Design the sequence.
């Protein structure tokens, strides 16, 4: 099994996009040289795609949650309506 195959597996768990690239490179090298480890390289590529998709999905969910926070919510128990009436006609 080539070192590139093992690097692809480790990289796919740590940083998905790098695992995808290294996995494809390992598959190309295995096809050219006939080395063993095609299954591991393929698994590294698939895990890289899954980790990348999970990362993107996590970012989308976090941004959606962040944007759903109510910006008009009272801070420290203050009432925005009563504060807007201070100094009004009266």
Sequence:
């Amino acid at each position: 099994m080539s070192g590139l195959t093992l690097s692809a597996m480790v990289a796919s768990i740590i940083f998905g996009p790098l695992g995808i690239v290294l996995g494809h490179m390992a598959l190309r090298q295995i096809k050219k040289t006939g080395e063993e480890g095609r299954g591991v390289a393929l698994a590294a590529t698939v895990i890289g795609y899954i980790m990348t998709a999970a990362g993107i999905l996590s970012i989308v969910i976090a941004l959606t949650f962040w944007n759903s926070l109510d910006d008009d919510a009272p801070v420290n128990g203050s009432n925005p309506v009563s504060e807007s009436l201070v100094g009004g006609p009266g």
